[in-house]
Amino acid sequence: MNNLLSLSEDKTLVRGLRRGEERAYRQLFEQYYGSLTIFALRYLNDKESAKELVQNVFLVLYRKREAIIIKQDQAIKAYLYKSVYHACLNERQQSQTRRRHEQQAAQAQATTDYTDTLVEAENVARIYQAIETLPTQCRRIFKLNRLEGLTNQTIATQLKLSKRTVETQISKALRLLRQQLLH
Q1: 54 and 87 part of one domain
Q2: Pair 2, 47: CB distance under 8 Å
């Protein structure tokens, strides 16, 4: 197929397109798809996106075929190039908006992660400070149990205390810590 259609051929194809003639639509597609894709590629820098965009322009052309307004001295080629140009601009704008939103979301997530880490660190510091305020024996037994992971029986044997005393001291430590950390 040659690269240029005469104005009268263009008008004939447009009339056929308006009537829903598949032949006219196919001929327009075959005539302009390749050059429109190359044209779109200059704006989008992605071959697949350019192909998809041009296909969408042709899809819209077919759907709105009855309402197409082409000036007397203008060819369908100009109409198609203008449509692809505007579609490319819209795509670039949407892409920039998506990137900006993704960056904002990433920043918000990083801030949230940092804030969560900071809050967690502050909470851990408050817990350790509260542990240090426990009475001496209570603090010692609590640290052996909760921080070093020793069992109540092991602590009782090591400190020469009854297992019941160790349990009582751990319960007391937990009660005192709860009171202190909740206020």
Answers
A1: yes
A2: no
Decide which of 101, 136, 159 is a domain's last residue. Answer: 101
For the chain, how many structural domains are there in total?
2
Provide the domain limits for residue 93: 7-101
Rounded to whole angstroms, how far apart are CA atoms 178 and 180?
5
Tokens for 125, please give them. 């510091």
Q: Is residue 31 part of a domain?
A: yes
pTM exceeds 0.85 for this model: no
Task: Give the count of beta carbons closer than 10 Å to the beta carbon of residue 120.
Answer: 10
- Shared domain check, 115 and 93: no
Pick the more confident residue, 72 or 102.
Answer: 102
Where is the domain boundary, 50, 77, 101? 101
Dist CA 109 CA 104 (whole Å) = 9
In SS3 terms, 34-83 reads as HHHHHHHHHHHCCHHHHHHHHHHHHHHHHHCHHHCCCCCCCCHHHHHHHH
Same domain assignment for residues 32 and 86: yes
Give the C-alpha distances (Å, rounded to integers) separating 164 from 2, 108, 138, 175.
99, 50, 13, 16
Confidence label for 1 from pLDDT (cuts 50, 70 and 90):
very low
Q: pLDDT tens digits, residue range 27-59?
A: 999 999 999 999 999 999 899 999 999 999 999
